[in-house]
Write a structure and sequence with these properties.
The protein is of the alpha/beta class. The protein has helices at residues 3-29, 33-37, 43-48, 51-71, 87-98, 124-135, 154-164, 175-187, 208-214, 230-236, 263-273, 300-305, 331-339, 342-345, 350-362, 369-372, 374-380, 383-397, 440-449, 475-487; strands at residues 106-107, 111-113, 142-143, 148-149, 168-172, 191-195, 201-202, 206-207, 218-222, 241-247, 277-282, 310-314, 325-329, 405-417, 425-435, 454-455, 457-459, 462-466. The strands form five sheets. It has a seven-stranded mixed beta sheet, with helices on both faces. Bound molecules: pyridoxal-5'-phosphate. Residues 174-176, 202, 206, 247-248, 250, 280, 282-283, 314, 325, 419 line the site of pyridoxal-5'-phosphate.
């Protein structure tokens, strides 16, 4: 260290020592909860709300103050007012404590099955039924006709069989649970054969090798990343083999020099060796999207026709219902899955079941279902439709923004999301907003701060609003948020 560097270092140390000292002093000066509660402006709060609530709010506020002080690096003299929460501070804190944390947001990202924003949304018609079931007793596991115990799966089994053509069906908490249950029931302490091209990871730490391990099955990998042949499966199949597993690579594609064994061939191989075939289908579409110009995905109905023993898929991806794991397939095998004690731990809840049942009923009419299920409606919305909506929105709501804001309508792409149809680009129109006075990051943050929060995308210096994922009933609220954000600080 040179002399100059040493001097600088000593200077820094002195500053940080001073900062530490003044921080400690300030922390010591923070008044106690009791003391604050005794203040004349705080006493009315205990009458308006309950005392324990005010105490909790106060504790939270003081905790934040301590954290803020601890996090500052500058000397903190002169901050005596920050350690004394005002009546308003405490009321704000009470509001936070009494408002739900899980709440509505407006999704303006154009990502339809946005996992972080709750994937599929339910249509208003279904919600009515959901609230009835939530607020009353129901025949969840009661056979009203016979006056005796019934099965919770009875409400969806026939529907699922009718829609998919499967012999038997039931549901669990989510698709991850469905896969675990199938593998644990069929392949515990035995082998599961799976192609190296299908050892996928889905967001949220769902990884096939880990899931297999936790299910108690030994993984036998075959083939290579890009090519797996039938002979690869054949060469390792033995009396130790319990399952042939096929996993739909929902969220990525291997393209180029590739070979995979199609499901019908695998089913045939399974038959020959009397080994059940399990297909984790991931998104599980119940309708054919190709007439809408979208990539051909195998529908569950087509997969059932291959004769595969077990198919699992999500309730809240392309099906457009609540989070759930749907299992369809051969009756005898599904019976053993239902009986597995693990199923009790992965059991579907009645609110999910109510939403899933009503969602599935909409599929009985394959024509109107597209309009009635929000996820399907969003996926099939055309570019022309979005062009129209976006320009009408701009005309109707954004006329009076200050001229420091430029608003353009631009072509962009929405996404299906949720690891479904990864290559499927959905052409869309977006509102591209830019402020001369406020950075795009600041605008995006302010939108998140709005009530309800609006989640938008940033593209270079523009804030992008995709109406595909915004319900028409929410347009006014969205406009309100945009006007507030762009009118302040412009
Ligand atoms: C999404 C997905 C899962 C996990 O489904 P969840 O319903 O989110 O539990 C499992 N496997 C595949 C192939 C998937 O695409």
């Amino acid at each position: 260290m040179t002399q100059k560097e040493q001097t600088l270092r000593i200077g820094e140390l002195l500053v940080s020592k001073k900062a530490e000292d003044s921080k400690k002093k300030l922390l010591r000066q923070i008044p106690s909860v009791e003391k604050i509660l005794g203040r004349s402006e705080i006493i009315p709060l205990c009458e308006k709300y309950s005392r324990p609530l005010v105490v909790k709010a106060l504790q939270n506020r003081l905790e934040q103050i301590r954290k803020t002080i601890a996090a500052t690096s500058d000397p903190v003299d002169d901050c005596i007012q920050m350690i004394n929460p005002t009546q308003k501070d405490i009321e704000n804190e009470i509001l936070i404590l009494t408002s739900p944390s899980l709440k509505k947001v407006i999704n303006a990202t154009g990502v339809i099955l946005h996992t972080n924003l709750g994937r599929s949304i339910l249509s208003p018609e279904l919600i009515n039924h959901l609230t009835t079931v939530a607020g009353s007793y129901s025949n969840l596991e009661y056979d009203v006709e016979e006056g005796k115990r019934g099965s919770r799966y009875s409400h969806v089994e026939k529907l699922l069989c009718d829609i998919t053509g499967a012999e038997a069906a039931f549901v669990v908490n989510n698709n991850a649970a469905a896969v675990v249950l199938a593998l644990n029931t069929l392949a515990q302490d035995r082998e599961t054969i799976v192609s190296r091209g299908e050892l996928i990871e889905i967001g949220g730490s769902f990884r096939i090798p880990d899931i297999l391990k936790r299910s108690g099955s030994r993984m036998v990998e075959v083939g290579t990343t890009n090519k797996t042949h039938l002979r690869d499966y054949e060469s390792v199949i033995s009396e130790k083999t319990a399952v042939l597993l096929k996993v739909h690579t929902s969220n990525y594609r291997i393209v180029g020099f590739t070979t995979e064994v199609e499901l019908p061939e695998l089913v045939k191989l399974g038959r020959q060796h009397k080994v059940p075939v399990v297909n984790d289908l991931g998104s599980g579409s119940l309708i054919d999207f190709s007439p809408y110009g979208l990539t051909q995905e195998p529908t569950v109905q087509e997969v059932v026709k291959t004769g595969v023993d077990v198919i699992t898929f999500s309730g809240d991806k392309l099906l457009g219902g609540p989070q759930a794991g749907v299992i369809v397939g051969k009756r005898a095998i599904l019976k053993s899955l239902i009986k597995n004690p693990l199923n009790r731990a992965l059991r579907i809840d009645k609110l999910t079941l109510a939403s899933l049942e009503s969602t599935l009923r909409l599929y009985l009419d394959q024509e109107s279902v597209i309009q009635k299920i929000p996820t399907l409606r969003m996926i099939t919305m055309t570019k022309a439709e979005l062009d129209g909506r976006t320009s009408r929105f701009k005309e109707k709501f954004l006329k009076n923004l200050p001229d420091t804001i430029t608003i353009k309508i631009e072509d962009d792409l929405s996404q299906v999301g949720g690891g479904a149809l990864p290559e499927q680009h959905l052409p869309t129109s977006v509102l591209a907003l830019q402020s001369k006075a406020v950075t795009v990051q600041e605008c995006e943050m302010r939108l998140r701060d709005h009530k309800p929060p609006v989640i938008a995308r940033i593209n270079k210096d523009q804030l992008r609003i995709d109406l595909r994922t915004v319900a028409e009933e929410d347009e006014e609220e969205l406009a309100d948020a945009l006007c507030t954000v762009f009118n302040t600080g412009t």
